[in-house]
Design a protein that fits this description.
The protein is of the alpha/beta class. It has two domains: about 120 residues, D-Maltodextrin-Binding Protein, domain 2 (3-Layer(aba) Sandwich), CATH 3.40.190; about 80 residues, Periplasmic binding protein-like II (D-Maltodextrin-Binding Protein, domain 2, 3-Layer(aba) Sandwich), CATH 3.40.190. The chain has nine helices and eleven strands. Strands 1, 2, 3, 4, 5 and 11 form a six-stranded mixed β-sheet that branches. It has a five-stranded mixed β-sheet with strand order 8-7-9-6-10, sandwiched between helices. The relative contact order is 0.19. InterPro entries: Solute-binding_3/MltF_N (IPR001638). This is Amino acid ABC transporter, periplasmic amino acid-binding protein.
C-alpha cells in the first residue's frame, strides 16, 4: 500500500514517455473522471491510465505529457488546442464522431448485473420474470433491450437497491462495473457477485479533435493491443484493483 502511494505521487508529477526521440503529445486528464461514479477508485483509475500510457509509449516510441484539467475544461481544452488529446468517458455517439476521433476502449466502465452470491443468473440467462433494479432511465432502456422478459424496478439510490437484493426483494441490480467491484470487495463481500461482463461499451478512451492527430489514435490503438497481447494489461488491472 505504501509503495503504491509513493508510486502514485511519482506518476502525478512525472513526464510520461519513453525517450527524447519520439514525438511528444500533450494529453489532458481530469483526475476526478467526472461524471463517472468510481466509488473512491479515482486514484486507481488515474494510476492505471498513467501506467498504460507508459506501456503504449514504450511500444510505439512516442511520448506523453499529461496536463491536468478540471472536468468542465477538458473538452474545451482539447478544442482550444491546449492539449493534443484527452482521456475521457465521452461515448462515441454519431453526433460526437463529427467532433472527435475516438481510440479503442481502454477501460470499460459500463453497467454490470450484481446478484446474490448463490444466484445462478448470468449473461446467458433469459431473465424471464426476474426483477432487476436499475438507477437510471438509460440503464432501464439498456436492460430491457437486452432482456425484454425481465421486470425492471427503478431505485433512486444504489444502497437501497443493494439492500433489496440482499433481502431477496429483487433478483439483481444494475451498477457500473467499477462501483460493482468496490461493493463485492468491501461491504458485500461474500454476499454479492458480478454476474455479467459490462453490458455496453461505456468507458474511457483517448479522444482527439476530428481529423487531427489520426496518427496518435492509430499509435494508441496499436500500443493498447500490444499491451493486451503481452499480458501486461491484465496485470495493470489487477495491480490497481480494477479487475
Amino acid at each position: 500500500m505504501v509503495y503504491r502511494f509513493f508510486l502514485l505521487i511519482i506518476l502525478s508529477l512525472a513526464f510520461v514517455g519513453c525517450g527524447s526521440k519520439g514525438k511528444t503529445y500533450t494529453v489532458g486528464v481530469d483526475p476526478t473522471w467526472f461524471p463517472l461514479n468510481l466509488m473512491g477508485k479515482e486514484l486507481n483509475v488515474f494510476a492505471f491510465s498513467n501506467e498504460l500510457l507508459l506501456e503504449i509509449s514504450r511500444h510505439e516510441g512516442i511520448n506523453f505529457q499529461r496536463l491536468n484539467l478540471s472536468w468542465d475544461n477538458l473538452t474545451m481544452g482539447l478544442e482550444e488546442g491546449k492539449c493534443d488529446a484527452i482521456l475521457s468517458s465521452v461515448y462515441p455517439y454519431v453526433f460526437e464522431l463529427k467532433k472527435y476521433d475516438f481510440s479503442d476502449l481502454y477501460l470499460n466502465t459500463g453497467p454490470v448485473l450484481l446478484v446474490k452470491g448463490d444466484s445462478m443468473l448470468n449473461v446467458s440467462s433469459p431473465m424471464e420474470g426476474k426483477e432487476i433494479a436499475v438507477g437510471s432511465q438509460e440503464q432501464e432502456a439498456l436492460f430491457i433491450r437486452l432482456y425484454p422478459q425481465a421486470i425492471v424496478r427503478y431505485y433512486n439510490q444504489i444502497p437501497t437497491a443493494l439492500n433489496a437484493l440482499v433481502n431477496g426483494y429483487v433478483d439483481g441490480v444494475v451498477v457500473g462495473y467499477i462501483p460493482a467491484t468496490a461493493f463485492v470487495e468491501d461491504l458485500y463481500e461474500g454476499k454479492l457477485k458480478i454476474a455479467t461482463p459490462p453490458l455496453n461499451e461505456a468507458g474511457l478512451r483517448l479522444l482527439t479533435v476530428h481529423d487531427e492527430h489520426s496518427e496518435l489514435i492509430e499509435a494508441f490503438n496499436r500500443g493498447l493491443e500490444k499491451t493486451r497481447d503481452s499480458g501486461k494489461y491484465e496485470k495493470l488491472l489487477k495491480k490497481w484493483n480494477l479487475d
